[in-house]
Here is the input.
Amino acid sequence: MGGSVLARLVIVSNRVASPKERAAKAGGLAVALREALNKQGGLWFGWSGETEVDPPAEPKIFKSGRVTYALQTLDPDDQRSHYAGYANGTLWPLCHYRLGLLSFRRSDWEGYRRVNQTFARSLLPMLQPDDVIWVHDYHFIPLATELRALGFTGRIGYFHHIPWPTPEVFLTLPSHAALVNDLAQYDLVGLQTEHDVRALLTYISSEARGWIGPGGVVGLRDRRFRVAAYPIGIDAAAFVADAKASAASSETKRLKASLAGRTLAVGVDRLDYSKGLPNKFAAFGELLKSYPEHRSTVTMMQVAPLSRGEVAEYRALRRELEELAGSINGEYSEFDWVPLRYLNRPFQRATLAAIYRSARLGLVTPLRDGMNLVAKEYVAAQNPENPGVLILSRFAGAADELSGALIVNPYDAEGMAEQFNVALTMPLEERLERWRANMDKVESNTIHHWCETYIDDLTHAADMMSDVLDHRQAAT
Ligand code: ADQ
Here is the structure.
């Protein structure tokens, strides 16, 4: 097959960022993928966002620059089983270690596979044998199986944006064996951290009876593929520029005026139960209770845009947070100070950068998170001469890299409050030292570096594997 770096790139993801979406609004990942597609020329394939009974078998196609967009419409029942059912009702809680929230229905599993089959049939006619296909996230684990069944033998890679659970947790999934067989149909399986890689490889060697070679090369029955960690990054330079520009913006002025000299602690998370929002609210309440000197001097702002409102657990979480925010504010507010500002709306990147830079504390305390890009964005947005302190959950993938953060356990409200207090009283010298350590990581491992490394490894996956296989053969 050969490994021309300029092979055409095909990206598959559930939501496709429209070419009209401006960089300020699209996430860093969408922008970086679009850049990679523009560089190599390519195809971005995914769901159109629409459902229709008896949908057309072919995707809607349009072009923008060197990129072709292909969007497939789905049958409404299939889409429900796929998205709200198996992807977000089964795999999301499973991969975030929330077995109490996991629902498994065979009809969802079948719908999930059917949608992957539909996507494969719709994509196949557009593929060329030399294409490099990069599939994103847990909505599409069986896509390679379906493409191989239709005869595609070229390079296919998969990146899993969320954590990979340890074998004990993964085994609770009735379809565990089938999913790992699906992964084996890829050439390169990318995960966020070494911890995730170990979890998957342990399952493969202990439960699936595969073998593990050097460099994460795996043999599972007749398949050979690689599993490796690719910690995702952000567009650090863009955040630095936005944050710098924000220093004089009218939004920053309004924010500062509203704080009236008080210290700001900020959290920015999708409204999702993996993000540990009730725990964070409880820890802030604990701070106000146990460290009364901070009352009236610190304001917490939690930005939490609504997400997946069609799933019952998310509606319940929203109610819980409204109650918690109400009770903290009811208990501690003064006539001129509201301790917790809670906003359910999205912001443009420049506004987020302004909020991050104005905040002395960045509160990133998920119960589990593949990486958590907010942690990196908060670091990038800081004023290098007077940086804030990142409070980071040990269960976020980002904790592996950001050694300058104050690492907390989100299940321990009192422990978190203690660390909030440490951050609020931390001298400038220590803040500078910690920030520098974090910023070095954020600047060296950017989203561009991540994209290039993954695409390069996928493009050359066959060569990397044949080295290991030769070595293995020579050894036996
Ligand atoms: P998410 O769970 O969405 O991503 P995260 O990594 O924090 O989590 O990314 C969220 C992104 O949304 C950030 O870029 C952030 O700026 C943006 N965002 C959040 N709130 C916003 C708001 N109010 N307005 C505008 N933008 C907002 C999944 C995985 C993560 C993994 C990423 C990338 O769950 O673990 O890090 O994919 O792989």
Summary: The chain has a mean pLDDT of 94. The pocket of adenosine-5'-diphosphate-glucose is lined by residues 27-29, 161-162, 232, 268, 270, 303, 305, 346-347, 352, 369-374, 377 (CB under 6 Å). The chain is about 45% helix and 20% strand. The radius of gyration is 23 Å.
